[in-house]
């Protein structure tokens, strides 16, 4: 629906016109290669180069970092990123590749970083001159993130990093990493410190990046090993021992509940297949044979499609309601649900799509016979990346139960 | 048409809702509600009609019955989101009153037009309670399902599942005639009207079936002439579903918060039971489902006012989501209260029973989804590509 325009502020309205005019005047050429479904599945430089150029152009046009201060490379606007996002999505543009930078590193640096770090690193992050990754999880620190053991040892004005990070999306392309490290082994929660770390320059020396292969066969995430990487104290974000508090800002944004709106453009995969949308199940059902008729004639499948559409519409309207404080019982109640709900709707929609496709769901996306380009089945496999990442959905339920309903902490 | 971002829920609506919440918390706390409606636990008790008429007079004085009445007819003429806000509070308090029944009648009357309907709207604004008598014995919610005939100015037949019939002053009767469906206003004390109370599970309302035996209908009682009634009912249906769904969301919020409070108090194995994820995670799932239902309620309410072409589908979504969450909230609330939750003494069953009633009233989740599928996908076997795509 086109509700967005109806109550734009004057600044938003003017900015929306700018976005539309620029997007209309600057069509994006077709991708030279098949794009993955999201930034965390980028495998090849051919994919990356195309997407990187798109982000660079969008930033140059003022569509990225709109609400950040001008001194940090932002647009100095108020509540305009959401407008840019709506217009980029409306224009059908692909996703932005530097998603971990835009979604997590940028708000954390903006809210906790030193002036030098903010002003030198953020413009390059927004323009995609630097790609960013997130060094949080470790083999022994998954759901129990505060158990990180990667150690930052202070030596005068420098720090020496040793350890092992895992599930590090985009590390194979990344210039920089946001790093949560232990700086004090005697204190679990007060013993962590947060850094920004240049990793590319030390690749093959103090930094090793080893790709991991996902269940889809795609790469995109990695293990990262630190072997005595030295960084200056200038790259510390927040006080020594305050890393856990700083990380909460990152995690809040990763879960879609932070104060800074993440620049977000669109989806990847086949641009003609709107598979992320549960409404797409209707068309799929109409064209999928079932018991001598179509899947759209099967009452059970009709009911299940409606259940998903209702959940999706409920979630979409929830995002709208979250911006109407008078209709919210608790300010974090809907925002903290965002990643959990979106990821489960996506997973369930893709699984249902495969059932609707029946035998044809067996075709991989690399097979020309795959219905809808095989995107639903691929989406199903990839959906676990989101139900597990950013704190598993089980951890999200703990957080919601504890922070919103006041239930006793499970840990 | 486009919807306003705030669902039409403006400062006045928020003030009305907040005032209602405080008023009901002050005047009908849960223990008082229990004393009011659950004094008699005898399964064979005669059908009850327990309510606080003094409270109802205060509610009328506060203007709640005028919220959805157009200004031209003496009401406040507020957006449907404002009425949904009130209905949520009524559900949260499980208020026994003719408020919801009268609100639903008001929403039908708004669609009738004409002098008799406008006159009755004005009377509702000053405290006359009304209820719909539009459903046959089969419980079919479809508009063409009707077991009352209108012939020669007389009503004959029966209407069932009439909500809060013994609290109402006037019935809005759906009647079939040779020229189609009509709607008539029939005062409950009219000659030939026999209101037979039903024994029902829900303690927070009364229900009856009504026999019409040669009941005379004067021209001034015809709200929608034969052939016009079906359109009025169809136009009002999205709003009816939305308000019933709002009541369920309010009650589900009470169930959620009450159960969460119990999970913070009750200790077993040395922990508050909310510590255990077998309790914590279902409560979070309930909260998530409730938030989706509530968001869909305000979306549907807003669509009724601002995007009527989408209101039928959005209202089906709201009622489906709310019906399912009503059932789930009740189920987990009793279970997590343990043995005490299974007793008459605990207030949870009052809400569980109200939720069960509203879950089925005007169609449960699977019924709503079947209707929604017809709107979005066309009828089964139609093969038709209905032009209703993603918003």
Detail the topology: elements first, then pairings:
The complex is a heterodimer of chains A (411) and B (391).
Chain A: H1 10-25, H2 45-60, H3 81-90, H4 99-112, H5 115-127, E1 132-135, E2 151-155, E3 158-166, E4 176-182, E5 192-198, E6 207-212, E7 221-232, E8 236-237, H6 243-254, H7 280-286, E9 289-290, E10 293-294, H8 299-321, H9 338-357, H10 375-388, H11 393-404
Parallel strand pairs in A: 1-4
Antiparallel strand pairs in A: 2-3, 3-7, 4-5, 5-8, 6-7, 9-10
Helix pairs in contact in A: 1-3, 4-5, 4-6, 8-9, 9-10
Chain B: H1 11-27, H2 30-37, H3 53-62, H4 80-93, H5 99-112, H6 115-125, E1 130-133, E2 148-151, E3 154-163, E4 170-177, E5 180-187, E6 193-197, E7 207-216, E8 222-224, H7 229-265, E9 267-268, E10 271-272, H8 277-306, H9 311-337, H10 348-360, H11 365-377
Parallel strand pairs in B: 1-4
Antiparallel strand pairs in B: 2-3, 3-7, 4-5, 5-8, 6-7, 9-10
Helix pairs in contact in B: 1-4, 4-7, 5-6, 5-7, 7-8, 7-9, 7-10, 8-9, 9-10, 9-11
């Amino acid at each position: 629906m086109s509700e967005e325009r109806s109550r734009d502020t004057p600044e938003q309205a003017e900015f929306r016109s700018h976005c539309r005019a620029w997007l209309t005047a600057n069509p994006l050429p077709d991708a030279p290669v098949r794009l993955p479904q999201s930034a965390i599945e980028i495998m090849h430089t051919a994919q990356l180069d195309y997407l990187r150029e798109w982000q660079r152009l969008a930033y140059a046009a003022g569509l990225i970092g709109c609400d950040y201060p001008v001194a940090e490379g932002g647009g100095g606007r108020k509540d305009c990123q959401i407008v840019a996002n709506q217009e980029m999505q409306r224009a059908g543009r692909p996703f932005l590749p530097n998603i971990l930078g835009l979604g997590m590193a940028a708000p954390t640096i903006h809210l906790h970083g030193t002036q030098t770090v903010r002003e030198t690193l953020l413009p390059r992050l927004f323009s995609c001159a630097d790609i960013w990754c997130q060094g949080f999880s470790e083999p022994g620190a998954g759901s129990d993130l505060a158990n990180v053991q990667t150690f930052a040892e202070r030596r005068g004005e420098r720090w020496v990093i040793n350890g092992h990070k895992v599930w590090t999306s985009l590390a194979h392309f990344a210039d920089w990493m946001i790093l949560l490290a232990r700086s004090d082994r005697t204190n679990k929660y007060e013993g962590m410190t947060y850094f920004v770390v240049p990793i590319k320059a030390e690749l093959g020396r103090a930094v090793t990046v080893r790709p991991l292969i996902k269940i889809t066969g795609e790469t995109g995430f990695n293990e990262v090993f630190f072997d005595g990487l030295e960084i200056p104290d200038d790259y510390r974000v927040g006080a020594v021992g305050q890393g856990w508090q700083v990380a909460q800002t990152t995690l809040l944004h990763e879960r879609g509940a932070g104060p800074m709106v993440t620049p977000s453009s669109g989806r990847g995969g086949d641009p003609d297949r709107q598979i992320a949308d549960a409404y797409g199940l209707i068309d799929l059902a109409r064209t999928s044979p079932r018991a001598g008729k179509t899947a759209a004639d099967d009452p059970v499948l009709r009911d299940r499609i409606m259940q998903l559409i209702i959940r999706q519409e409920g979630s979409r309207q929830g995002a709208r309601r979250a911006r109407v404080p008078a209709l919210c019982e608790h300010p974090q109640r809907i925002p903290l649900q965002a990643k959990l709900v979106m990821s489960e709707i996506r997973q369930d929609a893709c699984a249902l799509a495969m059932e609707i496709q029946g035998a044809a769901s067996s075709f991989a996306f690399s097979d020309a016979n795959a219905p809808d380009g095989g995107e639903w089945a691929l989406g199903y496999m990839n959906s676990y990346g989101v139900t597990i990442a950013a704190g598993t959905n089980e951890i999200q339920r703990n957080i919601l139960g504890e922070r919103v309903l006041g239930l006793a902490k499970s840990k | 048409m486009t919807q306003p971002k705030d669902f039409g829920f403006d400062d006045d609506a928020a003030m009305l809702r907040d005032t209602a919440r405080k008023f009901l918390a002050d005047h009908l706390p849960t223990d008082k509600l229990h004393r009011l409606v659950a004094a008699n636990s005898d399964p064979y008790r005669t059908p009850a009609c327990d309510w606080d008429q003094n409270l109802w007079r205060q509610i009328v004085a506060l203007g709640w019955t005028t919220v959805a009445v157009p200004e031209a007819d003496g009401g406040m003429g507020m957006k449907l989101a404002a009425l949904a806000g009130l209905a949520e509070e009524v559900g949260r308090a499980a208020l026994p009153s003719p408020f919801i029944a009268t609100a639903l009648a008001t929403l039908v009357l708004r669609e009738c037009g004409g002098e008799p309907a406008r006159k009755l709207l004005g009377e509702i604004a000053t405290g006359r309670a009304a209820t719909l008598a539009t459903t046959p014995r089969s419980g079919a919610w479809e508009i063409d399902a009707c077991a009352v005939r209108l012939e020669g100015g007389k009503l004959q037949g029966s209407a069932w599942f009439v909500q809060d019939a013994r609290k109402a002053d006037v019935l809005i009767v759906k009647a079939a005639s040779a020229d189609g469906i009509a709607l008539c206003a029939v005062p409950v004390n009219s000659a030939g009207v026999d209101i037979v109370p039903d024994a029902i599970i829900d303690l927070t309302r009364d229900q009856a079936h009504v026999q019409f035996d040669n009941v005379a209908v004067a021209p001034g009682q015809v709200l929608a002439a034969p052939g016009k009634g079906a359109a009025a009912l169809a136009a009002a249906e999205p709003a009816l579903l939305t308000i019933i769904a709002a009541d369920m969301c309010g009650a589900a919020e009470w169930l959620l918060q009450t159960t969460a409070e119990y999970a913070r108090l009750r200790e077993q194995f040395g922990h508050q039971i909310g510590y255990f994820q077998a309790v914590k995670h279902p409560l979070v799932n309930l909260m998530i489902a409730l938030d989706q239902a509530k968001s869909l309620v305000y979306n549907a309410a807003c669509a009724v006012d601002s995007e009527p072409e989408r209101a039928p589908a959005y209202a089906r979504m709201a009622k489906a989501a709310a019906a399912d969450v009503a059932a789930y909230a009740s189920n987990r609330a009793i279970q997590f209260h343990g043995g005490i939750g299974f007793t008459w003494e605990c207030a949870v069953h009052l809400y569980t029973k109200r939720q069960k009633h509203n879950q089925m009233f005007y169609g449960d989740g699977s019924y709503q989804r079947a209707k929604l599928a017809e709107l979005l996908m066309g009828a089964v076997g139609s093969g038709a590509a209905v032009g209703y795509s993603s918003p």
